[in-house]
Structure formats: structure tokens, C-alpha cells
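Contributing new records

If you add data, match the layout below exactly. Sequence lines come first and carry their own label; structure lines follow with theirs. Keep one chain per record. Anything else will be rejected by the validation script.
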Amino acid sequence: MYKHEPIFLQPVLQERIWGGQKLKTEFDYEIPSEHTGEAWVISAHPHGPSKITNGPLAGKTLADAWNGHGELFNKSKENQEEYPLLIKVLDAADDLSVQVHPNDQFAREVEGVPYGKTECWYVVSAEEGAKLVLGHTAQSREELESMVDNGQWDRLLRRVKVKAGDFVYVPSGTIHAIGAGIVILETQQSSDITYRVYDYDRTDAAGNKRELHLERAKQVTTVPHADAVVEQKEVAIGDLVEKKLVQEQYFTVYHWKLNGEVEQKLNHDFLQVSVIAGAGKISVDGKSFEIHKGSNFILPYGLGAYKMAGNLEFIVSHI
């Protein structure tokens, strides 16, 4: 059915207190307001499933395809749960809350959902001096609890400067926050569980502070923090430079830069592809599709060979 065609997806836009307008100005997405923080660009999560825009499943969601057409993903009894990954583009016009996510075991036992949340970030753009929160300074759980309870955020939180092209791996249990002025592409497990640790005492339009989840956050935070070490490898395939950003338990993520043409075979169950710069085309079985910054698609199982041409940058991932 879909064997010879990429599956193109329409993003789901999410308003956030910290969001801005760059998802429109940089990615040309139709945003619902001036505070649009997230585009869920490849998503089968019930809180925002992407719609398929082409082929026989046009109008259906990615979740519909996963549940009804498992052959497109080489779905097996081992991975019969929900679609495993979620890709987002985030525009942080303001600082995101400081937060932490649980691992699979905690998510299943406490929240009753299949996946915890390990994630990683590719920095698409960053204003001069922009910073992330990544990790903390506490050396014991007692010290962590004391510093949280006493609001010693400047002492507790580690801040790291970032620039466009940086990559950050954020395993579950890592205290983190994306800072103002940063646009990232996030590859993560398909989970929407967030334990908010600190929100700068912000209030919404009605004057209410957002809920914090301190007890659960303390339970799931890794102590002491250690920066994840990732081995990165770069190879040239024709006119394509492929940089492997991370390869770990839940996903492998690459940065691809194409200047010219490349022909490749699909060697995975399925491949998730997001265009983060440039324009060009992808061709399968003599049929061509225009692609540009903001395009998101899945190359389904059994696709075989495909050709790409143009000046393009991608973030690509698979399970």
C-alpha cells in the first residue's frame, strides 16, 4: 500500500506560556497564537497526534497507521505498545520551567503509561549567550531535597551556554530546562509526563502559578548528576555528510547535511526525517516529493531505495 511512498505529516501546534512566534517565522507553520511553544511534528501521542497528508492514509493520524497498518513500521509482538518516539520543534521565547522526567519503570508503575521520557535536543538556533539548565550540584538525595525545599535554585541548578548546532542528550532523571532564545528539535520517547521543579514563580493570565510536582521530582531525579557521554561519528555518503549524534537504548539520532544528491537504501524498520534547513526533493520509484525546512516524514518499512537532491539539513532518527 504505502511501500513506495514517504508518509508526510502535519504538525500539531501547542500553545505554551513561554512560547513565541518562531515556529511561524522560521518554519512557516500556522501558529494559533503569539505564544506557540511546540510543534509536535512526528507524533502518535494521544495529546497531539500528527495527521498524514498524502497517500491512501491521508487524513488519518500516525496513531491510526501504527495501530492499523503495523507492516509500515515492521511492527512485531515485541514492540506492540504505543508508537515509541515523538519529535517536536520547540520555540522558547522565555525560559521553560525546570523539570525532570521519569524512567519507563516509574512511568508504568506510578503513572500507568508505557514510556518514561529520555530525550535529546539539537539546537536549531540560539540567541547570543542563551543558556540551558542541565543537571544539578547536589551530591546526595538529602542535599537535593534540602536545596529544593529551601528554594536554593542558583546554587542547585547547573547552567550551560549553547549555540546553533549543539547537541544535548537528556536521559530520564536529568533536571533540565530550555532557556529563552533557543529553538530546538527534540527527539524523545513518546511520553508527556513532566514533573515541574521550579517555574520562576510565574503566573498565568488569571494570576495563578503553575503546579509543581516536587515529591515525584525528588523521587526520579538522578543523584549525583553526571553529564551523559555520547560518541559521535561522521561519515560521507556521496554528497551527504552523516553525523551520528547519539545511539542508545531508545533511539539513534543523526544530523544529515546534503549538498547535491544521494541515493540510499532504507536499512531500518522505519526512519523519521525532519528538514531543519534548505529545500530539495526526495524521489522513490520515480515519484518525486518537494521537501523544505519544516517538512516532516517517515520512510516506512520495505521502501527500498530512495534518492534525495538539494541543499538540505535534516535530523533523522530510528528506534
